[in-house]
Amino acid sequence: MRAIIHAGGSGIHSLQQTELPEGLPGAGEVKIRLKAAGLNHRDLFLMAERTDADAPLILGSDGAGIIEAVGEGVDELLIGSEVIINPCLDWAKTEQVPTVPNILGGPTAGTLAEYVIVPEENVIRKPLYLSWEEAGGLSLAALTAYRALFTKGRLQPGQHVLIPGISGGVATFAALMAAAIGAHVTVTSRSEVKRQKALDLPITSALDSHADWVQAIGVNAVDLILDSIGPATFSQYFEVIKPNGTIVVFGASSGDDITIPMRSLFFPQVNIKGTSMGSHEEFAAMMALLEQHSIRPVIDSVYPLSEIGLAFERMEQSQQFGNIVIRIDERD
Question: Is the full-model pTM beyond 0.90?
Fold first, then answer.
């Protein structure tokens, strides 16, 4: 099978296309012929940390395709099923949070290949209304957004959610999901182009990241903030959040270390929570929400597998708005 491996040092320059054995599914597993896969910033982080001593790795966490073979104990009637992959392995129950989520595509071989083998419990039926490109690039971002909004953030209809740094898959999915249940959505971006694109989504407002947030948001203070940025914006959150509001952190693109104004934390009784990925239960609930509201991912661009380097360059340069998808198999 054709596969993209990362080998020979850190960074995207170490990506190579090669031919590898397809493999056979073991007990409880299914083999999927992939139609499309998605890129995530996690892939860039993994590549940046790898060295010449590391074994070649097939990256990629998101994917959708057709089950071609099943292992022992799996119903053969599943062969031919169109499915979406849940990339979060070994996390069945929502309350049983792992120390670090085990995610497909590192160290387990991922989806940037013609075939992938995963546990049966990590696949779910592809909704008919989604194209292969839409289905192939949604899993990691949509699952992260769902858990941040609803499990950790407990977002309710009519509440106000702030999503700083609108552009990537998690942020755009969070905006779509929040709007779908009737929440008010405010986003920020340094880019005027991305703010204009954001206004095409069902959101309340799009603010310049460098604007006066207090003045722009006014009396409609924020119930929930989804933070993927960290120290560059964190201190501003306490100026616009309501008493007993919640900040859910799922990333740290500007660094790990923050200074928290303690009185701004305990007097208004602000809640700060961390999150990463989600359980099988949440993945099923997330897919049900998407299908209920016919939510479609925001697709930034689609590349063939042979142009994987260009796709990662676009992500590395923060040019995307939405999900970057890789088309793997053109067959029906």
Answer: yes
Separation of alpha carbons 133 and 249, rounded Å: 28
Strands (E), 197-293: 205-208, 222-227, 241-249, 271-274
CA dist 88 and 98 (Å) reads 11
**pLDDT by 10s per residue, the chain, length 332:** 999 999 988 999 999 999 999 999 999 999 999 999 999 999 999 999 999 999 999 999 999 999 999 999 999 999 999 999 999 999 999 999 999 999 999 999 999 999 999 999 999 999 999 999 999 999 999 999 999 999 999 999 999 999 999 989 999 999 999 999 999 999 999 999 999 999 999 998 999 999 999 999 989 999 999 999 999 999 999 999 999 999 999 999 899 999 898 999 999 999 999 999 999 999 999 999 999 999 999 999 999 999 999 999 999 999 999 999 999 986 65
Q: Does residue 45 contact residue 312 with C-beta atoms inside 8 Å?
A: no
Residue 245, both tokens? 């509001």
The Cα 249–Cα 148 span in angstroms is 8
